[in-house]
Structure formats: C-alpha cells, structure tokens
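INTERNAL AUDIT FORM
Audit reference: QA-55
Scope: verify that the stored structure record matches its stored sequence.
Auditor: D.O.
Record contents follow.
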Amino acid sequence: MRSDISDSELLEQIAAGNQQALQQFYQRFSGVVYQFSMRTVANAADAAEVLNEVMLDVWRRADSFQGNSQVRTWLLSITRNKSVDLLRRKRPAQSLDESDIVEEGDDRCEPGFITGLKEQGAQVRSCMDKLKDTHRQVVYLTFFEELSYTDIAEIMAIPSGTVKTRMMHAKQQLLKCLQRLLG
C-alpha cells in the first residue's frame, strides 16, 4: 500500500473493508490517539483500551466520515468521546462538569522541591494533571497537537468561545500552580 495516500483515502479504503488500510491508519494515528486519551484518562491501560475502541469504531464507521473536517479532527473527536465514556463507566460518582476550578488557596498544588530541568518538567506535568479533564484537553490540543480553537471546538462539540474560556481558566490555574511550585 502506498505510504503517500491521504488520510481521507485511507478512510475510504477502510470503509470498503481493506484491512491493510486500517493497519496503515493505525500506524499513522495510534500515537496521537493514545497520547490524547492519556490526557483524559491518565492511565496507560485505560488509554490503550480507548485506543482499541477508537480503532474498532474507525473500522466499523469509516463510512461516516463526511469530509467536513480533517480526518485528525474527526478521529480526536471520537477519541475524546470514548475517553469520557470510559471515565463515566469507571467513575460514575465523579462529575465531569467543568465547574470544578482550582481556587487560590487549593492545596492540590503544594510547592515541591525543584533541583533540575527534569524535576521542573515533573512539576509542570503535576500542574497539568491537576487541571480538570476539559481544561487539560484544551491545553493538550492547543499546545501539543497545535490545533486551532475552531478544530478543538469541533472535537469537543462545544462553541469556540467555550474553548477560549476553558483555555483562559486553564492558563490561570497553571500559572497559580507553577507560581506556588516555583516560589
């Protein structure tokens, strides 16, 4: 199979039942799906489960891609939905509402001992992990996947204004947490 085949052509071939196309699609996107899922479920086994569910969904529903967005945007939308579904199944009592904002005096961001770049990276990851799922997803999609707010809005099925608001809150929370950690 050609390696220069477009993402949408791969989906067309998957819809026609081509398993080689699915294998190539998996090779092309499994890392992106896994990493994005990890930002939501925060557990390697759960992220792997989401990856499997997403790829199974792609196999079953490749024909549902209508070309109104990029394939990657469509795929990350499926990934987000599968990740949230898994969290709801595993943590039904925990709300996934976005109203849980880290407040100024919140002790979830206790200052840590920083002795090098590696430890600073760990502190940044720690602050990222303290963000609500919805805020962490917006930060990840913006800075790590380099997606526009419009694409993120489509993936998360929310208005682009909500994406901007979530990013603003996420940045404020990260700043507060990092200020506490870095003194």
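Auditor finding: record pair retrieved intact. The radius of gyration is 18 Å.
Action required: none
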